[in-house]
Amino acid sequence: MFFCPLFTPTLFRVNPPITYIRFLHAIPSALNIDIYLNDRLMASNLSFKKFTEYSPIAPGYYTLKIFVSGKTSNPIIDTSFFATPNNIFTAAAAGNLNNIHLKLIEDIPMTIVPGTTMIRFIHLSPDTPTVNVALTSREGIIFNNVSFGEVTNYQQVSPGHYGIQITAAHSGSVILIVPSTPFGPNKFYSIYAVGLSAGNPPLQVLLPLDGNSYLKV
C-alpha cells in the first residue's frame, strides 16, 4: 500500500461560503425598475416600496445595473460592490431623481437573547431632515439624530405592540406617527423610512422581517 505523509483525507464536508441578497426600490416618484447583477436579471418591474425575496449568491465582486423597467440602456444605477462571505444584505435603490444611488445595508448575522426582539432604523427619505425615533409605548427616544442614508445599530426591546413616532431632531416637531404594530420575539426588524415628508409619495415606514431572523450563513 502506498502512503503519502503529506495527504490527509477529508473527514467531513465543509460547506462553501454563501451570501444572501435582496433588493428594495426606495426611490420616490421613480418608475418601476429592473435589476441586473452581473448581467443576470434579479428583479423585474419592481415598484416603489417593494422588496424582492433573498437570493443566495457566491461571495465576490459584482456589477449591478438598474434600469427603468423594460429598458436595457442608460441605467439609472451602474455600480459595483463586494459581497462578503457568510453575510446577508439588502441592496436599496435610494435617493431622489437627481441623485439616485445604491445603498448596501448589512443584515448583520448575530445572536439574539431568547425571547427578545431587535429593532433598528434606516433613513431613506431624501427630503426628510435628521430625525429622532421613539416607540410610543416606551419612554424616551430609541434612535437619535438619524440623517438620510444612515443605518442605526440594533436595539433590544421586549416583544409586543409598539407605535412609532418620528420627529425632527432640531425642532421636535412630529413628522410621522405609525399606529401600534406587532414585533415578535426572537426576530430582527428594520424600520425603513421611505417616501417624501413634503411631497408624493408621502413619508411612510416599511417593516420587513430581516433575513438574520431566519437565514443561516
Automatic annotation (TrEMBL):
Pfam families referenced in this protein's UniProt entry, alphabetically: DUF4397
Q: Which domain of life is it from?
A: Bacteria
Start and end residues of each DUF4397 domain: 20-134, 142-206
Q: What is this protein called?
A: DUF4397 domain-containing protein
Q: What is the lineage of its organism?
A: Bacteria, Bacillati, Bacillota, Clostridia, Eubacteriales
